Amino acid sequence: MATTTDQTAPDSAAPIGRPAGAPDASAGRAAPVSHDISMGVEGEEAHGDVSVDELALSVELSGADGAVATPDVAEYAMWLGDDALILAQQLGWWISRAPELEEDVALGNIGLDVLGHARSFLRYAGTADGRTEDDLAYWRDEPAFRSAWLFEAPNGHFGDTIARQLIASAFQLELYRRLADSSDPALAAIATKSVKEVAYHLDHAAQWMLRLGGGTDESHARIQQSLVDVWPLVDELFRDEPVIDRLEGVAVRPSTLREPVLARIQEILDAAGLETPNVEPSMAGGRRGSHSTRLGYLLAEMQVLARSHPGATW
Amino acid sequence: MATPGELGTEAWPLWEVFVRANRGLSHVHVGSLHAPDATMAIRNARDLYTRRGEGVSIWVMPADGITTSDPDEKGEWFESPAGKNFRHAIYYTKTEGVKHL
């Protein structure tokens, strides 16, 4: 029994400044893990009682408890799922690149929230033809994506991302609020879960609009230009497509969102002393699979790992 | 002594964050963060310190608003209670019938 002493490792081996078993920064990331994330996390007393060691990530997805989507419902779920997925991928780029560490985390959190929405919508969309959320995310090419062009607009500088986020969150907030009353229980459940998170995203974007709009002359001019640059993509969000006619009561008719979404954005722009751009709408046709050239690069980065190592888990 | 964040070397000032885990508990200091103003500080606190359901309420305050005791005077300040165990109420017998002691 010469090794007895080795079995009781001294406490000094624990990392300084963090109690043993404290949450790791990577816990809670929605990595594509197929079983439970056994992080063995015990909440510190000061942090309440948080334990994720028995949580399975797939259990967190809302909606779709055995429900099977019709092809039309799946198409619509793909609209919303792809919007959220592309936005999540874009926001993830900001980690380590935002103006401050705190803002890295804020944008990262928003990205993870919308990634969760994307997973729920795409999982449900996949029930129509037996595809998984991963099949849909990693194994479709540009023409099969149904996201609107707004979501593939470049991250640009911080103000560009905030301007895009303002429009995206205002749109998703009104949309999910209405979708919560959908006659499709799975869509209603996903929307109900998502609406609170999106309300926070809108607040985050609004706070930054106020500060950039009312900051210096430089920040005001730049955020105004960001709005002008992204504004042509707003119109597409409110265009009705034929599939919407077949989903009365299930889907939210995009054209009915125009007035409330624009009113909400207007209110924030007024408070920030910014002007609503007066520009021609783009020809964007994301709902029909016609995308800007940017989506190809974005998907290449998002999909390369899954396609290089099919079936890999980690 | 300068407070971190007020030296002008950082873009945003430093804020101290207090989180209340549950109704009935007090707010507990959990750490600090940078933010341009109080409104953003409380949002950053929400994102940094309540990601895993740790709290139901957050306070933030500017780090330079906190006055601290001087670590060099620890002896004068904090060693005095040694040898004064009578200050701990466990040495007294509870009067019969008193419930909430």
Automatic annotation (TrEMBL), chain B:
Gene3D superfamilies: Phenylacetic acid degradation B. InterPro entries: PaaB, PaaB_sf. NCBIfam families: PA_CoA_Oxy2 (TIGR02157). This is Ring-1,2-phenylacetyl-CoA epoxidase subunit PaaB. It comes from Agrococcus jejuensis. The lineage of its organism: Bacteria, Bacillati, Actinomycetota, Actinomycetes, Micrococcales.
